[in-house]
Every structure is written in structure tokens, then in C-alpha cells.
Amino acid sequence: MQRNVAVLLPLTGPNAVLGNEMLSAARLALSRPAGSTTLKATTSLPQVDAHDTAGPGGAAGAAQAAIAAGDGIILGPLTSPDTSLIAPAALQASVPVIAFTSDANQKRPGVWVFGITPQQQVDRLVAAGVAEGRHQFAAFLPDNPLGHALGDALIQSCHAKGLADPLIAYHVNTPEAISAGLATLSAYDSRVAAASGQATGSASDLPPDLAAALSSAPKADSVAPSDGNTASANKQITGGEAGNAATAASQALSAPPFDALLLGDLGLSLKNVIDGLKTNQISGSQVRLMGPGLWSAFSLKLGSIGGAWYAAPDPSDRKVFVQNFTTQMHRAPKPLADLAYDAGALAGSVSASSGGKGYPVDIMTRSQGFTGVDGLFTLLPDGSTTRDLAIFEIQAGGGARIIATQSTRGPSAPDAI
């Protein structure tokens, strides 16, 4: 018997517009046959069983209703707290969950985090940086959940690549704190002293991680990375002096003790960070600046950091979905509708591959992954999702262009869904 697809979303309340749009996207995906290589001619598509996570009983009640109805897979819920509420019941009933949250802490076998996560973005940026020849990464990040998620992701990515531990500093959102933090992270005072021919003092005058990193930092006219002998530095760095701005302005400083710098700020705080980069002579000619995919929403305003990168889905991958959605709904879809469509298409494809008998984990986690409207993705047994994101480069006049698409698969391409 065909096991239907439960979709758990806020269909009433303040997030009802988004929830209903995502529900429409999931229904659109499940109204279309799966890839011709997987669809059995005698297999019908599963039906959508929608449940309101904002209704009586909340997300937990919605999950219990879906399980009681015999649904074979749950798409949703939308948020991290709701995911934590439904996971125990779903796991006990052996019903897989494709959650739309981007909180990697919610992943576990049987519960997949399907949102585009900081880890996915940072993994792609680090891979591109290494391909460019950069080996000493650093991060200057806001002291908030996004900043810490990006910092944790950078540590994991560097470890996975066998790189030196990254230098990481977290800051509060004041211009003074930002400038001082960047001065310390970039060893600004020591670089000024070196440019002035002054003694830089003993290594004990600097934090040990910066002293070690500075000793192997590239020179001002070089974009080559350091030799990778930086000491462990994945601790928070705070404070620092602004240095002698007048001296620095008249002399070319050596490069900071890193050749790639991950940022995480948005809005006015990002402007303050950009000003701090200039003050502390952290130049894009020496350091590859990187940032979150959220930069795509206002890339036209980022011309002052031309050359900076962010990782995000290639918009050309979603053109057909946008056309189909617009035809049916008479409006273009919001970005989160992509997730619901891909989750619905995944459920349809897996159901077809099993001959309508359910949603086996071995098919859901197949190594070649699936081609979705946000690019290639793979569900891993531990509940995480890998995504092949494109690298966008900020242009000097503002806006961004794709400079690299990801292609990490083997010679056989995955089926489209």
C-alpha cells in the first residue's frame, strides 16, 4: 500500500503565508512523475497529507497525527525548535524526517537537516580557497548564533582538509570593538613596527597563536599562503590596540597572518567591519575575503569588497521550477519554497524506486545523491545533507557573478528529481 507524504508546516498564524507557499511547492513536486529511470509504470505518486504546526497541539500534535495516519515520511517542520519536538515520536515510529531547518544540531540518523547550513557554505568556500592555494584561514565574526555557527564550521572544514587551525575572533557590534578586534587578529601593531624598522618585541608580547602565525605570514606583495605551521588558534581573540594609523598609512605593511578571512556580519555591522579592514590594512590583494550566502540579498551594495566570495545555489538550476510554480500559482516562489519542492520530489523519487513500498534509508542516502532545484545534494546517514554550491565573487561595481560551480560527483551523474 502506498504510504503518503506528511508535510508539517505553519499553515495558520504569523508564518502562514510562507508555510502555505512551501506546501504548494511540495504538492507541485508530488504532482509530477519522478525521473524516468526510477519511476515504475504501475506505481502511483504518494499523496500529500498536510498538517498545521501552528494549530492546536503544535508541531508535536501534527507529527502524532501524521504517524497515526500511517504516513511514511515527514517533510518539515520549518524551525529548529519544532524539529526537536517531533523527532522523538518520528524516530520511535521509524518515520524519516526531512526537516527544513538549517540548524545542524538537529541532525541525527533518521532526521535530516535539509536547510542550507553554514557548514555547507563554509565547506565550499574552504575547498575553493585551498584550490586557489590558500592554507591559513581566519574568521572575524559577530558574537551571535550565526557567527558561532560559521566559526564552528570553519574549524571543522579546516580539520577535514588537514589545514592549520583557523584564527577566530568574535566581536560585539560597536565600531571600536570591531576595529580593535581586527587589529589584534591581523597583528596590526607588529606589522606597523616591522614596516617602521622598529623592534617588534619578544614573542611573549603577542598572543602565542599570532606570534607563530606572523612569523610565517606572506609579505605585502605576495598572495601565496603561509607554510601552514601556524599554531593552534581556534580560540576567541579579544581586545587589541588600533596601532599607529599615521605610520601605517605611509608604509606598506606585510600581510596579516592569514590568507583567507571569513566574515559573518550583515547590514551596518558589515559596514563597520569593512571600515575596520581598511584601517588595519587587511587588503583583498593579500587576503581572500569570504562571507555567508546571505550576502546575495544585497550584493549590489558590496562593491567596496570586490573580490570577496560567498557560496550559494546557482540560480540557473531553479529556472524550470520557477516557471512551473509561476504558471500554477501566478507568482514567483520564495527561496524557501525550493526546499519544499526538492523534499517533495525526493520523496516521490524514493517512493518510486521502492515500488511504492515506502522510503528506505538506503535509497534516501544513495551515494550519487539527487539533482534538485538548488543543485546536487546528498543525504548522509548521520542526518546531515551535503550540497554542491556555486562560488559567487563580488564585483568592484557591486553585484556578484558565479566564478565556479561545484562538481564533486563521480563520473555517473545522479538522476534528476
Tag the structure with descriptive keywords.
Rossmann fold; seven-stranded mixed β-sheet; elongated; 13 helices; 417 residues; 15% strand; five-stranded parallel β-sheet; 35% helix; alpha/beta
- Major sheet characteristics: 7 strands, mixed
Instruction: Report the structural category.
Output: alpha/beta
The helix-strand sequence is EHEHEHEEHEHEHHHHEHEEHHHEEEEE
Shape label: elongated
Q: What is the arithmetic mean of pLDDT?
A: 86
Report the count of strand segments: 15
Question: Any idea of the CATH class of the largest domain?
Answer: Alpha Beta
The separation of the N and C termini measures 22 Å
CATH architecture verdict of the largest domain: 3-Layer(aba) Sandwich
CATH fold name of the largest domain: Rossmann fold
- What is the CATH superfamily classification of the largest domain? Response regulator
The amount of helix comes to: 25-40%
Please tell me about this protein's structure:
The protein is of the alpha/beta class. The chain has two domains: 5-116 and 315-389, Response regulator (Rossmann fold, 3-Layer(aba) Sandwich); 118-312, Rossmann fold, CATH 3.40.50. It is built from 13 helices and 15 strands. Strands 7-6-8-9-10-14-15 form a seven-stranded mixed β-sheet, sandwiched between helices. A five-stranded parallel β-sheet has the order 2-1-3-4-5, with helices on both faces. A hairpin with a 2-residue loop joins β11 (370-372) and β12. α1 packs parallel to α12 (335-353), α2 (58-68) packs parallel to α3 and α6 packs across α10 (267-279). The chain is elongated and about 80 Å long. The two termini are 22 Å apart. Belongs to the leucine-binding protein family. Residues 217-237 are annotated as: Disordered. It holds the Pfam family Peripla_BP_6.
